Amino acid sequence: MTQRAHAAPMAEADALAPRLGDWCAQRLPQRGAVAVRRLRASAGGFSNVTLLGELVSSEGGVEGEQGIVVRIAGGGDGVFPKGDLRRQVDCLQRLAGSAVPVPELIGFESDVSWLGAPFYVMARVEGQVPNENPLYHLEGWLHDLDPAQRRCHWLAGIDTIAAVARIDWRARGFADLLPPAGRPPLAHQLERCLAHLRWSEGLGRPYPLLHDAYRWLHAHQPDDEPVALQWGDAKLGNCVYRDGAVVAALDWEEPALGSPVDDLAWWLTLDDSMSTGYGVPRLAGLPTREETVAHWERASGHSARHLDYYEVFTAWRFAIVMTRIGTIFTQRGLVPPQAEMDLRNGGAVLLRQLADRHGF
After folding, report:
1. pLDDT tens sequence across 113-162
2. Which of the residues 69, 153, 218, 228 has the least number of beta carbons within 10 Å of its own beta carbon?
3. Rounded-to-10 torsion of CA 339, 344, 345, 350
4. Where are the alpha helices (DSSP H) in 204-306?
């Protein structure tokens, strides 16, 4: 397997299992004989290759089995200009034992001779993740719960976002996420996202509305905001639930330091994009925007006073991400070219509505 890992066929997972087993044996000598079995590709994720498997060992003479997840750096043109597995690994290490539940990290490997690209292995957390395809507003296990249970699951996710906002980011070693030269975090994030947009346009076509949104966002930046750790992809689909509780917060590809309201806005935007954005009714029993905001403010200790701004910011960022996902889906033949998924998606719909409301 070469650095084209992201495009590797699923059948290659079988060939990787012995190599991965050898790597795990070196990393986990206390477990005795070690092997990786039933290694298979996961359907989720666009930036990295994700494999699922079972780690079998004979620690203490007793054979045991542990579910694992393997993330391999993707080659070629993905969703983001460049992935950083090391940053994901750092987040898992720094958040271990905190109020934010994350999977246990087994190890990280930068030597590409093992699997053809850098990778890390973490324990698989058993539970249920709300489905996004098909939309959880239309079907799936969350859809099939009674309204009171859906409400509890939603608020458990909001509590997890609040827990991220309460993390002592300096004590946990996240100061390296601060922008250089004392720049305001929001200004730095705007420039990074604009660079992402320009990179995406270089691989596809222009997106004038996204530049209009950037100009509005640049002109209306709030001042004097608190700085907190940001999850970067806070959504129902990144929460592993068990018995109504969030037992793992997944996908730390884009952590940052900035306003804690950003994660709340992203959660609301992603949910709205999968209902309003696709013209389907929102799932009954989920708390309203107002209820959600009030719960988050109580749980986080922060004010959501700039939420309107951050809803534009997150809709813009999501629309940028969807330019790449839509292009990738089209290139892989998953959607027909005439669908124009890079332009016609839930995030773009929300951004157009916000453009009409705010006049950009």
Report:
1. 999 999 999 999 999 999 999 999 999 999 999 999 999 999 999 999 99
2. 218
3. -160
4. 208-219, 261-273, 289-300
Q: Which CATH homologous superfamily contains domain 141-358?
A: Aminoglycoside phosphotransferase (APH), C-terminal lobe (3.90.1200.10)
Position 5: which residue type? Answer: A
Q: 5-123 belongs to which homologous superfamily?
A: Phosphorylase Kinase; domain 1 (3.30.200.20)
Q: Which two tokens stand for residue 350?
A: 């929300």
For residue 104, CA distances in Å to 97, 193, 208, 223, 329 come to 10, 30, 42, 37, 31
CA 134 – CA 69 distance, rounded (Å): 23
SS3 80: coil
Closest CA to 252 of 61, 55, 92: 92
Please give the structure tokens belonging to residue 211: 């530049």
With beta carbons less than 8 A apart as the criterion, state whether 140 and 134 touch.
Answer: yes
